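Format notes (please read before filing issues)

Several people have asked whether sequences and structure tokens are stored in separate files. They are not. Every record keeps both together, in the order shown below: the sequence lines, then the token lines. Line labels are part of the format and must not be stripped during preprocessing.
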Amino acid sequence: YSTFDFPNPTQVAGQREVTTVAPQALFLMNSDFAVDCAREAARQLLGEPRLTDSARIEQTYLTLLARLPDREETAAAIAFLDSLNGEDSELYRWSALVQALMIGGEFRSLR
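Then the structure lines:
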């Protein structure tokens, strides 16, 4: 229960404390489950060959954060993807972007 700061189910509490703990981001960064989820999301994005990188970034933001990215976020995402050029596959690059968004506080605190 402590990974995501869930309340102890054996205790009664009138109101849950609102917290975000570091292990939440670490779990999303290091767990096989999170990596697999990011890879599958990237696989779905790449399965749409008609989409441009900008359109894929928009789709990623809509799916994960329920909003469109602003210009700066789009530019940062493109720069991030470009920084992974070289030996890395497209699937790896897009998985890394998806996982980076999953690690962020905005994803972890969606209600």
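For reference, the curators noted about this record: The two ends are 19 Å apart (CA to CA). The mean pLDDT is 81.
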